[in-house]
Amino acid sequence: MIRACDLADLPEGESVRVLGHVPIAVFHTEGQLYAIDDTCTHQDASLSDGWLEGCFVECPLHEASFDLRNGMPTCLPAKRPVRTYPVVVTDGVIYVDTTNIREGVA
Question: Boundaries of each Rieske domain copy (predicted)?
């Protein structure tokens, strides 16, 4: 598990980029926490810098969109999913479980 941030430091509707083996974006939306690979599969852009709407994030570069729940792209130009990761909150700290990677599936 890698530490993302304190839960209090990630308000609803915001995201944080976590650097590790691969960059991971953690999103707080609709009362849930989601973690996905931070790099868009279409072109090298940080999804944590994208636009968050509900359970979807839009890439800031070419407007590809991904479902945070399963990593699947929802529109072109992205065709490949991003990986998702379980998120755990312990004692007010957000952790990402990088040992339990989930490949995007519908």
Answer: 2-96
Reported as half-sphere exposure (CB side, CA atoms, 13 A), residue 91 has a value of: 1
Is residue 104 over pLDDT 90? no
Three-state SS sequence of 39-76? ECCCCCCEHHHCEEECCEEECCCCCCEEECCCCCECCC
How far apart CA 28 and CA 34 sit, in angstroms, is: 7
The domain containing residue 63 runs over which residues?
2-96
CB atoms within 10 A of CB 104: 19
101 inside domain: no
Q: How many domains does the chain have?
A: 1
Categorize the per-residue pLDDT at 102 as very low, low, confident or very high, splitting at 50, 70 and 90: confident
